[in-house]
Amino acid sequence: MNNKIFVAFLSISLIAFSVFSTGCGDQSQKDAANYQQGIDAYAKGDFVVALEKLKPIAEHGNPDAQFRLGLMYREGNGAPKDDKQAVVWLSKSAEQGQLEAQENLGFSYAKGQGVERDWVQADKWFSIAAALGKESAVNNKQVVEVHMQPEQIAEASALTQEWLKMHKK
User: Fold this and answer.
1) Per-residue pLDDT tens over the stretch 23-44
2) How do residues 81-105 score in pLDDT, each as one tens digit?
């Protein structure tokens, strides 16, 4: 009798796994299609469609969609111009390692755009992007460090190393 219960349980589990796996795959494919449609719409200047396609994907955690959404809020393209909201989306994307978002977040902190100006945070994000291969971030880091005291540069360096250690792949 226990064998029959086990077989029934196993059958139900396999069916459930199959249904949920297919559903997840369908969602991934749908998200990929919507992402591409959003990027295409963005490139054409159809920011309303871009927002409609990208926002749900950004809300599900896609760092590239989050980056685009951050830009849309920063520029007021398809979304109300809102620097604070831009920083929210850029931060989410940057934390996941999106290089463009990291550099743009550095600009936000350097300019005080959507956040209070913070040279240490600006240097941190430029340094992270530079360490991960974003060449233009090297120059931006140098420009920011002109405005900083040695102890601020040391603090930014420590924050950068901490971030890189936590996000080691």
Assistant:
1) 445 667 888 888 999 999 999 9
2) 999 999 999 999 999 999 999 999 9
pLDDT of residue 29: 82
Name the residue type at position 12: I
Cα angle value 29/44/114 (rounded, 5°): 85
Measured between its terminal Cα atoms, the distance across the chain in Å is 48
Closest CA to 54 of 86, 76, 32, 24: 32
Q: How far apart are CA 121 and CA 34, in angstroms?
A: 33
User: Residue 146 has which token pair?
Assistant: 């002109």
Kindly report the pTM of this predicted structure.
Answer: 0.81
pLDDT at 22 over 50: no
Domain map of the chain by residue range?
97-169
Please say whether the beta carbons of 98 and 71 come within 8 A. no
Gap between the Cα atoms of 45 and 13, Å rounded: 47
What whole-number distance in Å separates Cα of residue 155 and Cα of residue 146? 15
Radius of gyration of the chain (CA): 21
Angstrom CA distances, 115 to 49, 98, 112, 152, stand at 28, 20, 5, 18
